[in-house]
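User: Please write out a complete single-protein record containing the residue sequence and its fold in token form, without commentary.

AI:
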Amino acid sequence: MRQLSARSARLRGIGALTAAVLCGAGLGAPAAVAEAQGSTPTGTSTSPGAGLVDTPPMGFNNWNSTNCRPEFNEDMVKGMADLFVAKGLKDAGYQYINLDDCWAKSQRDANGKLVPDPVRFPHGIKAVADYVHSNGLKLGIYTSAGTHTCSNLGFPGALGHEYSDAQQFADWGVDYLKYDNCSKQGVDAKQRYTTMADALKATGRPIVYSICEWGSNKPWLWAKGVGDLWRTTSDISDNWGSMLSIMKQNLPLDQYAGPGHWNDPDMLEVGNGGMTATEYRTHFSMWSIMAAPLLIGTDLPKADDATYQILENKDVIAVDQDTLGKQGRVLSSEGGRWVVVKEMADGSRAIALFNESNTAQRISTTAEAAGLPKGHAYRVRDLWQHRDYDSAGTFAATVPAHGTVLLRAWKDNRAASYPPAAELGASGLEFVQPGRAQQVTTTFTDLGSTSAKRVSVALTGPGGWQAKALPPTTARTLRSGKDLRTNWKIVAPKGTAPGTYDFTLTALYTSPRGTSMTTELPLQARIAVAPPSGDSYAGDLTPLSSVNGWGPIEKDHSNGEAAAGDGKTLTIAGTTYAKGLGTNATSNVEYYTAKQCSAFKATVGVDDEVGDLGSVTFEVLADGKKVASTSTLKGSDGAQQLTADVSGAQTVQLVVNDGGDGPDYDHGDWANAQFSC
């Protein structure tokens, strides 16, 4: 949970801060820590919610949609319970409605008890829990393992009050506790979280225990048996860079997840508006293959049908909720082409083909690599198309930029009863010059164990564009593994403005049993302006695309983490720079260099505004290949000169990755960044 204003305040006064603003919105004031009511950590091996979350919990958390605004109240929570039932979310498996911060008064009563805010919750928390339970759902609540919660409004935390607070939660009928990590007063994390675990168990009420200490103390190494799930990262934000960074931090932890002990990469941002539909499908797909908790974080009463279609995709949810409880493992990730495989209870495999890059990419794997038994045919289901196909053992697709193809595959001797799987591909459409003919090649490949019959392909684009096929565009029969290759002459009208233009490759074919099939591949052509001759500052050029961990990438200023223009003068090791780019990992800005530039150079480092807290790496990619990079740089490391040979490159990407400890404070500056063209 987070309030951006608090993050900005953190940056303005960073030297004086003693608590992080993560999973929360502000800083609790220092206070004396009372002794926990006769409690000491026991470290017992059974979590408070043992048996309740043998599959990852699914539900809703209000923070992203309401923060501490007045609309967070009793009526909203009851309305959410009604909506879960009416909209089919309960039937899809969502069951927890979790209250985040700001539900309590800022002071305890004379007996040290928590008091629900009488304006927000006039009938108390128990009445709300009873209403939620009457709908066949469960209620969650929030507090912090410190003297105050993470809100900057000063609500009481549970440190020193663990047993009393846990008993109140149990008496109210609470089913789930999110336990944050603010105002911790220097007390050891394992001690704080174990004490609350013991307190929850002492109530006798099973309560799911969510440890929200942001991965700071590697809870995956010690929290099994203490909690039921644990955050592995800092807070997620509703943008591609944040989601990607968090996904990359969580993926390597697959060995630590399992029934009743889950890695938690934070709640879902699906539907909040900061990413595209393609990116939200990737978000939901990757959280599901990682066996992550699926906690909705959008304003559901205002959500559109497209958002509900993602959140209620039962084929994808089944991957997340598989009873074997395996988190997907990474098979490969070269060039941003990820293959992640999850073993399923019925012997099948879920397979994510995820494209991190900014252009469409072919991604593939095999049944053998995925761990399936040897066979001559496999049934494969596309979990977003909801279609079953026959495969000879290769699983491949041209995946759009930032997209994911999510499959589920079984060895099946009857797979030939399904239509053969087909792979569509295209090359040559990436960049087009108006008024000039450009050759594009498309392919249709039969990936099935049987033949595709009566195959035909068509390529359509924007009005006014020419797309003329050079035969063949049809094939009577394509045997397993064979392809239909077609060349096209594409011409954009003279004067077409720079931008991205949508094309669709459509293929029709028939299975050996006479089933008619249609499959499509969305494509994009880009028209871009080549950089001028001579030296140009990167900030003065228009990028093809840009993503950033917090806020936008800033021109000639540091990254302020919120709105455009909220940064400061770029400063590295005391030296200021008038020109450059201010970023926050994970960031990627891509430029069209049109094979006309020879070199790139910049002075790079962590901006002074974060002190020695940030840790980042810088990379320069030419046509997707790394041509220059740094080691991990921290604020104390000062500036480093970075130069790259980009001769012959069509595009150049400037990438800032976090140093392995999460993206918070990772303000990476590209000072005096210049292209020579």
Remarks:
- Residues 531 and 541 are 7 Å apart (CA to CA).
- DSSP finds eleven helices and 38 strands in the chain.
